[in-house]
Amino acid sequence: MPQPHRKHLLTSVQMAHFVATGALRMDAVVPDEMNQQAIEVLNNGIPGVPYGTPLSEAFVDSDFVQRLVRLPEVAGAIHSLVGPEPTVDHHAVHIRKAHEGEAQNLHGDAIIDVRTDAFDVQLMYYPQDVTLEMGGTLSVPGSHLRKTNESDTGRYQNLLGQTRLVCPAGTVQFLHHGIWHGGRKNDSDLDRYMFKIRFNPTVRQVRLWNTDDLYDEAVAAELEQSFPWYENATGRLERYNRILLWRAISGDDTYDPNYWVTRVSNRPQRVVADRVNNPHAAANKKEMA
Amino acid sequence: MTATAETPQVTGPLTGLRQQVLVLYLASSALDARVVGWSAYDGTGGTHPTTGDSDVPPYATGLDALKDGWRLFQASQLHQPYPGHEYDVSFLKHEFFFEKLV
Fold this sequence. Notes:
Chain A: It comes from Kribbella solani. Chain A: Pfam families: PhyH. Chain A: GO terms for molecular function: 2-oxoglutarate-dependent dioxygenase activity. Chain A: This is Phytanoyl-CoA dioxygenase. Chain A: InterPro entries: Phytyl_CoA_dOase-like. The complex is a heterodimer. Chain A is an alpha+beta fold. Chain A contains 7 helices and 10 strands. Chain A has helices at 12-21, 32-44, 63-70, 72-82, 217-224, 232-250, 260-265; strands at residues 23-26, 53-54, 87-96, 121-126, 137-139, 158-159, 163-164, 171-176, 181-183, 192-200. In chain A, the strands form 2 sheets. In chain A, strands 1-8-4-10-3-2 form a 6-stranded antiparallel beta sheet. In chain A, strands 7-5-9 form a 3-stranded antiparallel beta sheet, with no helix packed on it. The longest helix of chain A is centred in the C-terminal third of the chain and has 19 residues, at 232-250. Chain A is elongated and about 90 Å long. Chain B is mainly beta. Chain B has a domain at 19-78 and 91-101. Chain B has one helix spanning 62-67; strands at 19-26, 35-42, 71-75, 95-101. Chain B has a 4-stranded antiparallel beta sheet with strand order 2-1-4-3. The radius of gyration of chain B is 19 Å and the shape is elongated. Chain A binds chain B through residues 102-106, 135, 138, 145-148, 152-160, 162, 164, 182, 184-185, 228-234, 237-238, 240-241, and chain B through 23, 25-28, 33, 35-40, 49-55, 57, 87-94. Strand 6 of chain A pairs antiparallel with strand 2 of chain B, so a sheet runs across the interface.
């Protein structure tokens, strides 16, 4: 894969948005000409790729997918999130038939993942306009750092502030591997298509994006945002965990705009003893009567 | 005289009543806290609530569900964090189960 131009890399604010929400949405980023071809391509199936194949060696039999991942904005986002030459974990074509009866339970893909300094991303491409009735992907902003396993979240039907995807044709969404999501029920007359690729990073995910705005106040604002479904107390823990992730990917171990990490990790080393216990202490301090 | 054990008959519910279950996830452990998540299961089969079918909670608080006639039958216990996992985030903690018999 050629190196994307710097102008197509994500900004720090966009990366902070991803760290906070677990998602990055790029509306209508795929040209119409490709969207027109996509349904036939997806109906024919995308040839398999062995787990762990470098992206540049994957999809050799699919010109369409190669063009998709080399679109400047898409390539820039992939590079910013997982770096150069990620490997392809797996890919899948999801087709929800018109009036298909069932919704997927809310789940995280794969098994529980406790990495705090690395993450995979899933590219999801929607070649058609997706309406609410078509039941696009449901995802829960800010759920990606929760330590839950696969479909153990299946009991949760609706969470306040959930994202019920409605988007124009050609939209690409990147999701953190841990995000809670599921395909919604398709109540429309149209079959709905989605193509997914999961990428594994092969380099440390540190400052892979355009860092010109690294200390912009909008970065902190993104990291500090809350979501309506958060419980009061746990919502604060979410911010704590986001700061740890931001420190990992920005390489700045001191970053802590609202002191969440600092105050609970502060272990002062200075010892101050009064004169009773320390006869060598200076005598010129006035003591209270 | 030998007692004859009676074999319990497997039959449907005696009352004909069916259970509707509502699960509310609240913002804190207080029952009058705001609703942040919800699920519903209908034992009558008359409705089919499912994942991602609504953006609006059925009640603003847990207490509002009681006022509307739902009977609370289970609330999550409060557990102290497991040592070493004080900052972990996972499932929603404040889960309340309600029922209606219809």
